[in-house]
Design goal:
With 67 residues, this protein is mostly beta strands. The protein contains no helices and four strands. The protein has a domain at 27-67. It has a four-stranded antiparallel sheet, with no helix packed on it.
Length: 67
């Protein structure tokens, strides 16, 4: 049985390339925390560890207990 020309696939259809995993932000000890400022729109952003707490990588505000 042969499909009508209208129903036959045209050309080779390839699936889109899959995304590759990069461990950026995983190996350097940073965490994804909710930023408490309106500059980051209260979204979850990457925070890097600092001595008194965590520093936001977007707006550079400090989060954590300073004691």
């Amino acid at each position: 049985m042969r499909l009508p020309r209208l129903l036959r696939p045209r050309g080779r259809h390839r699936a889109p390339a899959t995304a590759t995993f990069t461990p950026h932000g995983v190996l350097d000890g940073s965490r994804w925390l909710v930023c408490d400022t309106t500059a980051c729109a209260h979204l979850t952003t990457r925070h890097q560890p600092t001595h008194p707490g965590w520093t936001c990588t977007e707006c550079h505000t400090l989060k954590g207990d300073p004691s």
